[in-house]
Write a structure and sequence with these properties.
The chain is of the alpha/beta class. It contains ten helices and twelve strands. The strands form three sheets. Strands 3-2-1-4-5-6-10 form a seven-stranded parallel beta sheet, with helices on both faces. Strands 7-9-11 form a three-stranded mixed beta sheet. It is globular, with a radius of gyration of 19 Å. The structure holds nicotinamide-adenine-dinucleotide.
Length: 310
């Protein structure tokens, strides 16, 4: 198959591209390199630089490369940026997704997989519970709103034009190549800081000094596996959670990484960050052989160690 991966120069998209190539598919990456990096694009993929906000750019890549499948990973991914710049967030995540959907219909693609967010779309997940896809979404940030709008448009295009689509709601994804310079992606941030001999700050869940927020950390390899199954049409529901159902606090992540690296970083405690959900946990919709947290942290730490040694 020929597969168009939008956002394929980014963290998750580049792993999806790698896996597709390894399975013998042809891959075209479309990305504006705003947060992605050219070096993340696998050597075997064709790279097209373009902006999701431009319908002409999007249509051109479909017209020139005629993909069979589309993996739509490209997005404005920062929750805090969406709060500061909601119009930009919507331009990329809502209008950009519409451009991809319109081109997918026009060029008669066979299936489209959409990267949505289980980490943000459900809002607070009460103690003792896991969010299921039957829950009514409770988007709090503009980012969660724009992803939910993207999902709704997928539903409309699928019923209106018969476009086969698959929505994947990712939990907190971590692994090699995640950008450690943003304000999210705590595994990448902590890995980088441990290598730099810097302290790790745990932002409070409620009050400074607690173990931090609870999240569902899913290894990027498991997210890639869900994407491949989604593209092949093997998932049994149109909306699927991609998480582990296992909760971890920020402190557990700090200790797990320190253990994996055999280091004892200083740990400091910060206040609660405005807008942070206290607890997010998904009822997993894929599996069952998911990478355990300790193993995933060890693989991620090893990748950052190798990179910092370069
Ligand atoms: N990382 C997570 O924990 C997580 C969780 C839930 C959902 N997601 C979703 O998964 C997808 C991939 O996220 P990621 O973590 O790899 O982030 P990322 O920032 O590494 O990847 C996003 C890619 O999209 C590209 N992009 C951004 N704006 C663009 C534009 N206007 N035109 C073309 N390309 C553009 C970026 O350059 C980047 O390569 C996103 O849709 C994100 O919303 C990620």
């Amino acid at each position: 198959m020929k597969v168009l991966v939008t956002g394929g120069a980014g963290f998750i998209g580049s792993h999806v591209a790698d896996a597709l190539l390894a399975q013998g598919h042809e891959v075209v990456v479309f990305d504006d390199l705003s947060t992605g990096r050219r070096e993340n694009v696998p050597a075997g993929a064709t790279f097209v630089e373009g902006d999701l906000r431009s319908e002409a750019d999007v249509d051109r890549v479909f017209a020139e490369h005629r993909p069979d499948w589309v993996s739509h990973q490209g997005a404005q991914t920062s929750v805090s940026k969406s709060t500061r710049e909601p119009l930009l967030d919507a331009a990329i995540n809502v209008m950009g997704t519409l451009h991809v959907l319109r081109a997918s219909v026009r060029h008669e693609i066979q299936r489209l997989v959409f990267a949505s967010t289980g980490g943000a779309i459900y809002g607070e997940v009460p103690e003792g519970e896991r969010a299921t896809t039957a829950w009514m979404p409770q988007p709090i940030s503009p980012y969660a709103c724009s992803k939910l709008a993207g999902e709704a448009y997928l539903g409309a295009f699928s019923s209106e034009f018969g476009l086969p689509t698959q929505i994947l709601r990712y939990a907190n994804v971590y692994g090699p190549r995640q950008d450690p310079h943003g304000e999210a992606g705590v595994v990448a941030i902590f890995s980088q800081r441990i290598h730099g001999g810097e302290a790790l700050r745990i932002n409070a869940r409620k009050e400074a000094g607690d173990d931090g927020c609870v999240r569902d950390y899913v290894y990027v390899g498991d997210v890639v596996a869900a994407n491949l199954r989604g593209l092949r049409g093997e998932l049994d529901a149109p909306v699927v959670n991609v998480g582990t159902g296992v909760e971890a606090t920020t402190k557990q992540i700090a200790l797990g990484l320190a253990r994996a690296l055999g280091k004892e970083p200083e740990i400091t405690f910060g206040d609660r960050r405005e807008g942070d959900l206290e607890r997010s946990l998904l009822e997993p919709g894929t599996g069952p052989d998911l990478v355990p947290l300790d193993e995933g942290l060890a693989q991620t730490a090893a990748w950052f160690a190798e990179r910092s040694g370069r």
